[in-house]
Amino acid sequence: MTPVHFSFSAAFVLSLMGLAFHRTHLLSALLCLEGMMLSLFMALSLWTLQTEVTNFSAAPLLLLAFSACEASTGLALLVATARTHGTDRLQSLNLLQC
């Protein structure tokens, strides 16, 4: 495993661990998701450059478009949660309460 591949893998795993173990605020969860998507985008871009296959050249752009949609949806949920509950703490959210 090259150092570049190791750094992308480590960035993904660290973001995943941050999402799994540090779930206090919705904003921190969204930042961890963005870190995961950024590491996936960089790894996929590097993979398509190394393989030099033209069929997979649109895959990083498609992942980036989905990442932008995920970020906008997450920020909309963050704003809606902050307006209704007054905070973005995940402990204050209850699925059974509408």
UniProtKB/TrEMBL annotation:
EC number, UniProt record: 7.1.1.2
Keyword check for Signal: no
Annotated compartments: Mitochondrion inner membrane; Mitochondrion membrane
TM regions (residue ranges): 6-22, 29-49, 61-82
Sample GO molecular function, one term: oxidoreductase activity, acting on NAD(P)H
Any one GO cellular component localisation term in the record: transmembrane transporter complex
Keyword field: Electron transport, Membrane, Mitochondrion, Mitochondrion inner membrane, NAD, Respiratory chain, Translocase, Transmembrane, Transmembrane helix, Transport, Ubiquinone
Mode of membrane association: Multi-pass membrane protein
GO process terms (BP): ATP synthesis coupled electron transport
Origin: domain of life: Eukaryota
Catalysed reactions listed for this entry: a ubiquinone + NADH + 5 H(+)(in) = a ubiquinol + NAD(+) + 4 H(+)(out)
Keyword match Hydrolase: no
Protein family: Belongs to the complex I subunit 4L family.
Job description of the protein: Core subunit of the mitochondrial membrane respiratory chain NADH dehydrogenase (Complex I) which catalyzes electron transfer from NADH through the respiratory chain, using ubiquinone as an electron acceptor. Part of the enzyme membrane arm which is embedded in the lipid bilayer and involved in proton translocation.
Protein name per the record: NADH-ubiquinone oxidoreductase chain 4L
Organism, as annotated: Nematalosa japonica
Classification lineage: Eukaryota, Metazoa, Chordata, Craniata, Vertebrata
